[in-house]
Amino acid sequence: MISTILRILIDYRVGLWAGLLTTGKLCLIIWTTGLMIGTLLGILAHQRPASIGIGLKTASFFLASIPTIILLFWAHYPLQELLGIVVDPIVTAATLLSLVNIVTIAQMVRTAMDDFPAQYRIAGTVCGMSSRAILRRIELPILARHLIPQFLTQQVNMLQMTLFASLISVEEIFRVAQHVNSIMYKPVEIYTTLALFFIVICLPLNVLAYGLKTKFTRNLSEK
Amino acid sequence: MLTATSLKKIIQNRVVLDTLSLTIERGKITSVVGPSGSGKTTLLRALALVDPADQGTIAIDNDTFTFPRLPTDTRSPYPRLTVVFQQLFIWPHLTIRDNLILPLNGVIDSEHFRHLTELFQMTPFLDRYPNEVSIGQRQRAALVRALLLHPTYLLLDEVTSALDIEQSQLILSHLREIADTGVGVLWVSHAIHLAAAISDHILFMDQGKIIESGTPNMLKTPRSQRLKDFMAADIFR
């Protein structure tokens, strides 16, 4: 089996590499927009709960209620039909998955900020610390410890969601694997190769998220 | 001198501080005692300007804060006035040592730091995280964090409530030394027997009002029926 896997990797290296690049490109867009815009939106939702906060919560409920794959199909076919436009599938996939990531990250940030214990801020204030020092030395480090593990887990989920893009003809790694399988029909070896790829990327991220969560949760919980 | 005059606070249509006045003198320990729900903690938070009063004034030496405060009034009474809360509020992401050092903004008086950490027997756990130490150790950390700021007035909210008798003793025995350095201490507690032992002045509060005040001797001959009842219920007397 290993020799077959190696043969697949060598014979179809161009296609697999192209698929890998497409998946990488998708991830880069989804992760960057999600983390940057999502964090910003989460902060705004915390600061303006009556306007942006309600909008974010509504969007979050909406997105959580519909499977991403349905949304992807809907954005690829009916929406474009309704609007009379044709959009490159990779743009559709990147936009929709970015939106999902943005809303999820924003909700995480907003919840963490809403739930931030006010007493830590008050303790800083009565010790004579400036608002800026409290934000930089107390609030941000505590929030980061809380959020970074969640962010990592979410980005692993988003990487796995890029597989859905294959269903709207995006030539990412999973779709390339399907092509290869249709040519040589070696499903075990081909999908094992794919699984190995995901393990190499996702496992370290998951282990890191778990490690950070264990370490920081320990430090935040008092006897 | 810290002087509060006619402090009034209403929460959900209930008067929790009823035109209350008091004085905290430097070098003296003033205790506020009373039953749960009498407004002791509300008074402390109002004096600390954490939850300001709706009406009244607080004069901290030559600085007078009038309530309600104007939005343009950004003066801060901290850290010359500081507080140790009942819930301690030790920052969980920092070691005990870093909790003590952070508010000092890089200006650390090593001798003062060593003196206080040794006085409160903190050396063995300085490099542990708050979740790795006992509540009594966290209590001492919160107190030392406040003392390192060289406050003129120190407000303490039920700081011995979760401690055993030995740990309470450790903290209370040093309160007098702290006061003797010129710090005005306000100690809020429901433990009237402890207040009588360490205070220069006692205020008995109930339903948002000071019912009786005086030296600890006033507890020997209470004038109000409410204080008599409260003392009769004190199982530690």
Question: How would you describe this structure to a colleague?
Answer:
The complex is a heterodimer of chains A (223) and B (237). Chain A has 223 residues and is mainly α. Chain A is built from 10 helices and no strands. In chain A, helix 3 crosses helix 6 (89-114) and helix 7 (118-126) packs antiparallel against helix 8 (131-161). The model of chain A has no long low-confidence stretch (mean pLDDT 91). Chain B is of the alpha/beta class and 237 residues long. Chain B has a 6-stranded mixed beta sheet, with helices on both faces. In chain B, strand 1 and strand 2 form a beta hairpin. The two termini of chain B are 32 Å apart.
Which structural class matches the secondary elements of chain A? mainly alpha
Most residues in contact, chain pair and counts: A-B, 23 and 28 residues
Beta-strand percent range of chain B: 25-35%
- Assembly state here? heterodimer
Which properties best describe this structure?
heterodimer, A: 223 residues, mainly alpha, 10 helices, 85% helix, 0% strand, B: 237 residues, alpha/beta, 6-stranded mixed beta sheet, 4-stranded antiparallel beta sheet
Explain briefly what this protein structure is.
The complex is a heterodimer of chains A (223) and B (237). Chain A is mainly α and 223 residues long.
